Amino acid sequence: MPLEHMQTATVLPVAERRRAGQALRKIVPRSMHGRWTPSPTRRDAVDILIESGRHRIASLLPIRYDRMRASPFGFFRGAAAVMAADLADTPVSGLWVQACGDCHLANFGTFASPEGTPVFDCNDFDETLPAPFEWDVKRLAASFAVDALGRNLGEKTARYLASAMVLAYRKHMLELAVLDPLLAWRSRVDVTQVLEDIGDSKLRARELKRLTEATEAAHKEYPKLVEKRKGRWRIKEKPPLIFPLTGQRDDTHEIVARTAFESYKLSLPEERRILLDRYELMDVAFKVVGVGSVGTFCAIGLYATKDDHALMLQLKEAQASVLADYAGPSLYRNQAQRVVVGQRIMQTVPDLFLGWTQDTGDDQQCYVRHLKDSRLALIGSDLAEGALPYHATLCGVTLARAHARSGDAARIAGYIGSGTAFDTAIASFALAYAAQNQADWRLFVEAVKAGQIEAHGA
């Protein structure tokens, strides 16, 4: 991973690093980030999607495309490769961070820390790679604009939400820039505290109740996903999104999954392997996930003890980041290791079971993580229904914290400043790109109708 591209904190004082960030405005004025005009040589979005689909499981692509044609936001979620190419044609500040790479409002959520405390954070790192910090900011801002317009809230609200996200990002980056590095590194978004700060008393009470219920449910060991049959724990079949790999006539995929889960242990610190070895891998199943991930090999493994304590891990295939052609390839030859390292850098609370497969003879590179509880993940993100500006602020704060862990918060803070120039520019870009996304989505829908792309539901 090209760490030399990320300007981490140096021995220079904060004030000097901040002035260095301010000096960059003369080279790339902040107003330049507000522009979006398609390049005359811009590739057709449908062509990019078809090309990226060649490396995926062909039989699952119609499900992916069906989810993308459902709405402009559904298309946006699956079109990270399209926007990566577009961002490469925009002005670059020169300030690099460990970027999410697919930064949109649906890729943030709540999960439980190892201590059981709910925290809000980025939760998707398939495309992570060092890149200019503003690429993540622009994609996240555009996602709020696309979502707002899809809800028929109008351009004024779309601009406001994008601006609110950037405002939160900018203010939090200014705060992080002057903190003791250790305090900044440890900072996290405590969901309980966040919900208690909601001004609307009814919304606050509703969300705190949902958080309590979801947290309690998350401790009940996956009742909706597992069952005991003939004395052995099994993953419940939910075709065509979850189907068993154990006991099938063709056991190729089962062998691949079980081998991957076994080889992944080698990437874990020894104390984590000791913990995992207290469970036995009982069952494996294929799982169709997300929008962007549909078409990649994804499996879940059910582990259990002799006393019926359950643990579920998720195995996901990793491919080259969509940013690689524009920000440079990862120094990690194993793409799964790239994802794991990126997640460890960006997330405050580490996943105890995060690791990657070590089989050098297999070109299917996978990473493994603790399977998150979907009910808990919706806490915070579901606020978008009742408090969109609040959700935008939450995501902005979280992204700033994630960027500050790898980049130089003082330089970034110096560049974006204490005024609203950067906010205004990014909000303008978000609206302009939302219009571009709308146009691309329409072309995509027409391509489906014309039979160029096959799309059908699961």
Name some characteristics of this structure.
single chain; 458 residues; alpha+beta; 19 helices; disordered N terminus
Q: How would you describe this structure to a colleague?
A:
The protein is of the alpha+beta class and about 450 residues long. The protein has helices at about 15-25, 45-55, 60-70, 70-80, 80-85, 135-150, 155-175, 180-185, 190-195, 200-220, 250-265, 270-275, 325, 335-345, 375, 385, 390-405, 410-415, 420-450, and strands at about 95-100, 110, 120, 130, 190, 225-230, 230-235, 240-245, 280-285, 300-305, 310-315, 355, 365-370. A six-stranded antiparallel sheet has the order 8-9-10-11-13-12. The chain has a three-stranded antiparallel sheet with strand order 2-3-5. Strand 2 (about 110) and strand 3 form a beta hairpin. The longest helix is centred in the last third of the chain and has 29 residues, at about 420-450. The two termini are about 35 Å apart. About 45% of the residues are buried. Residues about 1-5 have low confidence and may be disordered.
Task: Order the strands across the largest sheet as they lie in space.
Answer: 8-9-10-11-13-12
**Tell me about the biggest sheet?**
6 strands, antiparallel
Oligomer state equals: single chain
Please identify the structural class as seen in this structure. Answer: alpha+beta
Mean pLDDT: 88
- Uncertain regions spanning at least 5 consecutive residues: 1-5
The beta-strand count equals 13
Question: Radius of gyration, rounded?
Answer: 22 Å
Number of helices: 19
Q: How far apart lie the N and C ends?
A: 37 Å
Q: In which range does the helix fraction lie?
A: 40-55%
Tell me the overall shape.
globular
Beta fraction: 5-15%
